[in-house]
Design a protein that fits this description.
Elements: H1 21-28, E1 32-36, E2 39-42, H2 44-63, E3 67-68, E4 74-76, H3 77-83, H4 85-88, E5 94-97, E6 103-106, H5 111-121, E7 130-139, E8 154-164, H6 167-187, E9 192-196, E10 207-213, E11 219-224, H7 242-253, E12 257-259, H8 265-269, E13 276-291, H9 293-297, E14 301-303, E15 309-311, E16 313-319, H10 321-331, E17 333-334, E18 337-338, E19 349-353, H11 359-374, E20 379-382, H12 388-398, E21 402-406, H13 408-413, E22 415-420, E23 426-430, H14 434-439
Parallel strand pairs: 3-7, 19-20, 19-21
Antiparallel strand pairs: 1-2, 4-6, 5-6, 7-8, 8-16, 9-10, 10-13, 11-12, 11-13, 13-16, 14-15, 17-18, 21-22, 22-23
The chain binds adenosine-5'-triphosphate and magnesium ion (MG).
Amino acid sequence: MRLSRFFLPILKENPKEAEIVSHRLMLRAGMIRQQSAGIYSFLPLGKRVLDKVCNIIREEQNRSGAIELLMPTIQSADLWRESGRYDAYGKEMLRIEDRHERDLLYGPTNEEMITDIFRSYVRSYKDLPLNLYHIQWKFRDEVRPRFGVMRSREFLMKDAYSFDLDFEAAQTAYHRMFVSYLRTFARCGLKAIPMRAETGPIGGNLSHEFIILASTGESEVFCHRDFLDLEVPGEGIDFSDAVSLAAIVDRWTTPYAATDEMHDTATWDALPEDDKVAARGIEVGHIFYFGTKYSSAMNAVVTGPDGKETPVHMGSYGIGPSRLVAATIEASHDENGIIWPKSIAPFDVGLINMKPGDAECDAACEQLYAEMGRAGLDVLYDDQDTRAGAKFATMDLIGLPMQVIVGPRGAKAGEAEIKIRASGERETIPLASVVTRVQA
Ligand code: ATP
Ligand code: MG
């Protein structure tokens, strides 16, 4: 992509409304634009990152055996009356009336709708286990939308729903998602720590929030230092092996970890000082087993091996990709801007032409641009006739992992400068080795 043809509305000034660094940087880097309170457009640079995050989520959901579908954003109030949540949900739900005076709503979540789909087609335990997910916009009329896409009213969510015959199978379904989440966040370049969460009337221990440590997080969190170097399962993990899944979950839930709501000061105080990490955190995912809450209310039953009908056991599993983009920036930035982990960077590399119009410089850049493209690299080519300082500032701000800088002198000498965004390291190398260097 040539910067001269791209749509990258960089802001020079610090937007006053932005209270936290991710919000500030997303606005400045032209990733998002607020359309009304808590409602944002994702501009092209932001959309690229969001898509990358969604693709990682999708790959890991699919790997674990979950199946993608797409449910609508608008739902009928009648479904929610069946579960009793239409009245219970309160003001966070955006209620709509259509021209026929039918009550509709903009979905804040999809338990009712997925339960309806399930009960319409599935009759037998032989069709289980089943896990269906989608990635769809949600609307929650948050009292205080803030921090940009971190807590917005309209936001993207991946929500998965599992269906199983009994508690044991449902627990394995929960473990599958737990492990899938560990892999998902690690692939996004993040360290997310699973922390026990409120289970409400269901009880048990099958509810975890996945929390990223960042000083601007909304919740206070407490965890054991061991989490910082626990190993994330590799892609070879067998999602049909209930025993090894349980072992992984066990390993990841044994050291102490809790948000302030679940914090147990006695256990915490008993830990050696050096093992304690007290920090702030951002919730990026939440998994939850809720038994037959919806299936009982909505009559979603299957026939078991004994020929008897029973309500299915369900769980739901959410990740907020739009929040995750902001949370990544909170966890990875410096005073000059964003530092994207490779896997979700909007482009792999930025190519800077220091002197557009200089024949040798143009020729060297055009050749590099073409070669990197052929090598499968996604390049943002700054071919604009602007000041050097502005070029560097923009590249640093948008945070691509690597920059290739070509000036007239370098072009003449057959050299380019490589800059690693995260460390600031610079190195001059022959033009001919740029592609392999960038790929490495
Ligand atoms: P929170 O406690 O932060 O309001 P929640 O418990 O309401 O979150 P869930 O209903 O579990 O969230 O939703 C699943 C995921 O959706 C969350 O882990 C988060 O990543 C994302 N999410 C929830 N609310 C928002 C929001 N207002 N803006 C952006 N993402 C959100
Ligand atoms: Mg909420």
